[in-house]
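Need tokens for this chain, all 438 residues.
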Amino acid sequence: MDPLHQDRLRVVRWPWIVTLLVIFGIGVALTVANGWQAHAKEFLNLLVRWLHIIYGIAWIGASFYFIFLENALERHNVRPELSGNIWTIHGGGVYYLEKYKTAPPKLPPYLHWFKWDAYLTWVTGFLLLVIVYYSDPRTNLLPPGSSLAGWLAVFIAVGSLVGAWLVYVGLSRTPLLHRPALFLWVGGVLVAGVAWALSQIYSGRGAFMQVGAMLGTIMAANVFFVIIPSQKALVRAAQKGEALDPAFVSWVQLRSRHNNYLTLPVLFTMIAHHFPFTYTHGANWLILVLLFAAGVAVRHFINVTEQQHHTTLKTGGAMPYLLVVAAVLALGVFYLTAPKGSKAALSGEPVTFEEVRAIINTHCHVCHATHPTQPGFASAPAGVMFDTPQEIVAQAERIKQVAVDSEYMPLGNITHMTQEERSRLGAWVSQGAKGPVK
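Here are the structure tokens for all 438 residues:
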């Protein structure tokens, strides 16, 4: 088979694709017949998120591995057609790899391509945005009380994905591309500006995910529009016996290295929704930028250490101050996101469990119950339920964290919890989170 067409997904033939579509159709029919829409959405969220993580690990893992190879190549005393070679050991075996400056004189019969992991990471990520944010923008994408129409919020979000790629392409066509430090600073300022702007439109969680999706789109589009086409051009040139300009190969490698530096910031946005204290802060855009900067610093430390491996094996990592910079940035975020004491707690006003339970029943129990009554929820989020006094008391600190410190819950404040009610919950926890009087 032509190396240009050696595609791993070609093993999935049309009969199997049709079979998968039939199974999906059965699921849709069962959902409609039994009124399982909320359950189906939650189950689809699970499957798509699982696939997103699987393909994301494969893609980012490959990126880390090939950047490591590029960084750690032995470039001395190698044949003229080679960029370098490397010996590695893994899984009980010793491997020897060579990298050609362009392509070998004769292509091998089998050539392994790395592209579908990137494509499917983006596709599953976009589907997650649709499932969690775009299908119901009032709940997660927009802040409570926003007057922006839901369709317009989604239009802006999707448009920002396209806009991010176009701006990146524009920057990459300027001399900045060959001045990495300046390219980083300009790109960083643009990301900070976008993060601030989106935080004025969307909820903190929505803004975080949207910025991460924009960076992920740049990465995937880099693979689709730049890296894979250039690799195909290299293969075609080798098949025709033509030489490919090494400068062109270096240009492509720069775009691949950009992807490598974006990985840690994008990974942070993938997990950020688990930590409301980051995106519910008043300056959430700044929190995002600081953690992005920490991730880029760590990634650069790893890259430089790999590039200078002969020295670092003897003296330690290169540019270790980058780890200190990352640690200081993380400490700054830790300080900025620390909880502040509530006025009710400081005043010492007693709060009874009965008052707390009334607040919980009104604002939280519609979702956090064995059988939620809030539309769109088939089960209690994160398995947290407030059916009994014991369950409420056991979750006291968590209640304070999400409803008082970060004010993240209720989602989108759909039940309209007041600041006074939040203060009363905070005071109850500060006073020992006592259960009902027996």
